[in-house]
Amino acid sequence: MIIGEQLRKARLAAGMSQEELAEFMAVSRQTVSNWENARSYPDIERVMRLAERYHLSLDELLRGDQQMVKSWLDAANVARTGKLLAAMLGLNLLLTLAIVVTSQIVWLAAGLLLLLVGCIGMAFFLMIKLI
Description:
There is one protein chain. By secondary structure, this protein is mostly helical. The protein has two domains: 3-64, 434 Repressor (Amino-terminal Domain), CATH 1.10.260.40; 67-130. The chain contains seven helices and no strands. It has helices at 3-13, 18-25, 29-36, 44-54, 58-62, 66-101, 106-130.
């Protein structure tokens, strides 16, 4: 059973309307409807509140909905890739400044330039991965 079916079943068992649940969760009624119809998923914090409200374990609530778990993992991977991209761009800036400062020492500037090219390549790779 997917989480939307679980949420609807639990809400009805608790005798709540979508409006009442939406007010409890501080979301719109349409959001609750989207959760129950598997058009979107609640974030992990809200899933924990729902499990607590319905007196269900997270395992009971989430079991069988691999698509939602995959969606959470994908979101976490995007966030991680974005942070890595920001770090690469910062490193590119730092290497560029280091090249300017060490331009009189040719071998050091050349080494830094090679590192800069590698970082630029990694930044492009990360940008493509985010697309």
